[in-house]
Design goal:
alpha+beta, DNA Binding (I), subunit A, 3 domains, seven-stranded mixed beta sheet, two-stranded antiparallel ribbon, 13% strand
Length: 366
């Protein structure tokens, strides 16, 4: 790869700046593709974005940027997209920053301050080489700073119409996929491609790269969107009342197993409601897989505390309630006389201590 350093002013980059969202972002007289298809969305928060402008106003150096040179002479930002969009948006009055104690857009600055920004010199390395060399370099230079997520790196390798359409659905805060799943998925960084990654993971049984490779040149991502939407359509039809405890449940797994079963949704809701009131159930989100599977492991049922076990051990004089043999405290387990499934509670009247062997035997038959 050929790498050549040059000094480029912000004025030159801002010339011809245009942000057309999904259609692309360009600058430098229309010759610079600021957000190539393999690049991530703009992820700087207000604090980071404003810091770029403050750095420029103070004359401090920004980090080195890298532009890739195409075989036809075209240019694209290889590294520095976030900083470039920050100062381009500011120079076109996209937001305000604190200057001299007041929030000011670019137009509110003095002419001297405006020229200070526009005449600021960026150190840009022009990189010329093959596509694979540029993408590999892209991975290397992004190790520092705001590191790319795994899905952002995958996007670099599988660009095409399928990915463009998929990102329009899954990579926008407030977009279709976010709106569909926000009540059922714990917080994800949509603009960092985490929701897209989740959707592909579910559709591919974990074979994300294989799925993206297979569909890279598809005209759209409708298949992925339909699969994702079907999961949450099923959830909404099966569990008719929304609760915050629904977030974080592995709905994709449950959907894959139970999507073709017919449930009495009123009975399911009654069962969920009763379990939500049960103090013995410590993991409320586990209620949803439990009412479908019947497996108590999802509920994290309350167990006897160490002090409760010690008190019962002393009451029994260290004698196992089943085999009537004496054991040391560490050789015994606290046990529910009447299990939770039969209405037993975690209190001293329902507590006994068993040796580990008897406890295991009882667990296997109850």
């Amino acid at each position: 790869m050929i790498i050549e350093p040059r000094e480029i002013t912000i004025r030159e980059v801002v010339n011809g700046y245009s942000d057309q969202n999904e259609l692309g972002i360009v600058g430098y007289g229309g010759k610079l593709d600021i957000r190539p298809k393999y690049q991530r969305e703009f992820v700087y928060k207000e604090k980071e974005r404003n810091a770029v402008i403050q750095t420029i106003l103070k004359g401090y150096p920004l980090n080195v940027m890298y532009w890739a040179v195409g075989s036809d002479g075209s240019l694209e930002v290889l590294d520095g997209q976030q900083r470039t969009i920050s100062f381009c948006r500011y120079a076109t009055n996209g937001f305000s920053v604190m200057v001299d104690g007041y929030p000011k857009t670019f137009n509110n600055l003095t002419v001297d301050q405006q020229n200070q920004i526009l005449n600021y010199k960026l150190l840009v390395y022009f990189c010329e080489g093959t596509e694979s060399e540029k993408l590999e370099w892209f991975r290397v230079v992004n190790i520092a700073g705001k590191a790319l997520t795994e899905q952002e790196l995958r996007n670099a390798a599988y660009t095409g119409p399928w990915l463009t359409h998929a990102k329009s659905i899954f990579s926008k805060v407030g977009g279709p996929a976010y709106q569909k799943s926000k009540d059922y998925i714990k917080s994800v960084e949509v603009d960092r491609q985490q929701l897209l990654e989740r959707a592909i993971d579910w559709a591919s049984d974990g074979k994300i790269e294989e799925y993206m490779s297979t569909h890279q040149h598809d005209h759209n991502a409708n298949e992925l969107w339909v699969h994702f939407r079907n999961i949450f359509d099923w959830v909404e039809m099966t569990f008719t009342v929304k609760r915050r405890e629904m977030k974080g449940v592995d709905w994709a797994h449950l959907h894959s197993i139970y999507k073709d079963e017919m449930f009495n949704t009123a009975e399911l809701e009654d069962r969920v409601k009763e379990l939500m009131k049960d103090d013995e159930v410590e993991r409320k989100s586990g209620i949803y897989p439990y009412v479908l599977t019947g497996e108590e492991k999802y509920l994290n049922l309350r167990q006897f505390r160490e002090g409760e076990k010690r008190a019962q051990f002393e009451r029994q004089n260290g004698i196992c309630a089943m085999c009537n043999k004496q054991f040391q405290f560490h050789e015994m387990e606290a046990d529910h006389i009447i299990p939770w499934s039969r209405g037993g509670k975690t209190d001293k009247d329902n507590c006994q201590v068993l040796c580990k062997k008897c406890n295991l035997r009882k667990s296997s038959i109850t």
